[in-house]
């Protein structure tokens, strides 16, 4: 829905960074458990753990609904994507799809695979 007073453009494609829902918490908790008191080592460890929470770029392709959206207009948008291989089973990821003044939260949940 375009709640503004000017038209906005729904893009054909977009790439957004996605991040592990528990990435920041996991980085802090794992750093707290380190035996070292060396600040440089601890900060380095924390930054490495933060980077592990980055899921990569989620590339979205608008299959239906791209183009100009007039003020006060509403349109369903159908998207297609390929899930980045870096995502971990059992984890949730989030990102923000932004175009013009519109922000949509994107959530991706990676199911655990069953083995028999």
Characterization of the model:
There is one protein chain. The strands form 2 sheets. A 5-stranded antiparallel β-sheet has the order 5-3-2-6-7. A hairpin with a 2-residue loop joins β6 and β7. The longest helix has 14 residues, at 39-52. The radius of gyration is 19 Å and the shape is elongated. It is α+β, with helices and mostly antiparallel strands. α1 runs antiparallel to α2. It has 2 helices and 7 strands. The mean pLDDT is 91. 21% of the residues lie in helices and 39% in strands.
List keywords for this structure.
single chain, 116 residues, alpha+beta, five-stranded antiparallel beta sheet, two-stranded antiparallel ribbon, 2 helices, 7 strands, elongated
- Tell me which oligomeric state these chains represent: single chain
Structural class by SSE content: alpha+beta
Number of DSSP helical runs: 2
| DSSP strand content | 35-45%
Tell me the distance between the termini: 45 Å
The succession of helices and strands, N to C, reads EEHHEEEEE
The tally of beta strands, per DSSP, is: 7
Mean pLDDT: 91
Low-pLDDT sequence parts: none
**Largest beta sheet, briefly?**
5 strands, antiparallel
Provide the gyration radius in Å: 19 Å
Gross morphology: elongated
Strand neighbour order, sheet with most strands: 5-3-2-6-7
Helix content: 10-25%
